[in-house]
Amino acid sequence: MATLPAPVTMDKLVSLCKRRGFVFQSSEIYGGFNGVWDHGPLGAELRNNIKRAWWEDYVYKRTDIVGLDSAILANPAVWRASGHLENFTDPLVECRNCHNRFRADQIDLTRNCTVCGKFDWTDIKQFNTMFKTFVGPVEEDASVAYLRPETCQAIFVNFRLVQGAMRKKLPFGIAQIGKAFRNEITTGNFIFRLRELEQMELEYFVRPDQADAAFEELLGINVEWLVNHGVRRSKLDLYEHPDGARAHYSRRTVDIMYDFPFGKSELQGVANRGDFDLTQHAKASGRDLDYFDDETKEKVTPFVIEPSIGVDRASLVFMLEAYYEEADKEGVRTVMRFHPRLAPVKAAVLPLVKKDPALVALSHEVFASLRGDMLVLYDESGAVGRRYRRQDEIGTPFCITVDSQTLEDRTVTIRERDTMEQVRFSMDGIRDEIERRLRLPWLRPD
After folding, report:
1. Least buried of 227, 248, 427, 441, by fewest C-beta within 10 Å?
2. Which class is 345-437 in CATH?
3. Entry pTM
């Protein structure tokens, strides 16, 4: 079957996400809320699978990385010491005519406003993108707090506590998955740039003389992780931030760029933060945040290598990479070719004829045997070909069809999503077989 020449567009993906329950506009019945999205049943499963895969690979499969789950709110002194109160800003410019606001580094200020067509810009101002809130019943300066704009600062302030509790020696890492909040001046491109987001971050602590080697190793590991889960290497590029253009704490930053339908942009960042964070928090708190080597009796302020990726941005990329169209006898077959590890639904059970009570009973038996450790759907509505298409469109790797032969020998048909190959297998061992297939190595069916 020939692949259609038209590539995936954001409009196609957004339409599928709404129709099939991946992503919905937040508060849609009230007109939505800019920069905030809700994840439907399948979107929630996809995000959970992404987070689970990342946690398993970076925490469970390694002996040098442990996890943390910190609070969203923190003592405001954290953000003062980290430099966020002073430096976590974006350049803001406003059109005096229509009063729309833009990030000054994302528009051409030598041209007219793209909204009203007038040329009347304000001076550029620095806008702090942290969300401010108040703790306690009275809104007063003493009770000001902030929703965290990133998850990593809690790792730094808990560095000694985690290291001591887990008896870790350098080099070691602390991983965290959690919500972050950024009052973006402009949002857009679906779930690419959000005001409420979720991050998967790793802070890897090393001796200063090991930082360069650790940086290169972690950069390679993160590119490999994306490719292993279905992202084409040809769609990725590496952008080295030049001197003078990096964040104030960074000694080196490389962005893993992805070729989105709207252009190349950052998917993931890897930064060498040096000893900035531990030094700043030690100075501001008066607490010792050095690492003490029991063997050499040496105190070290570790350097930190930070790979950071947004769950939402990763979800967007995995959906773009999965989206596939091909011509067939009924028109266009749309398939979400997710890595089976990430696929929201792992299998679907389909009775060939829903009016046959014996087939329906056996189908429910198969369905019950699969449920529990994976998301499985039961579908008896419409022709079986149409049901296959529905499952293809949400990325289900395996469809299990119960037919008349099942009544004779208790075998079912397993249909594979990517090849559409069908084989018969005993329904009594179907759970073990699906789990075995889900564990097999997977390659993109390009």
Report:
1. 441
2. alpha beta
3. 0.93
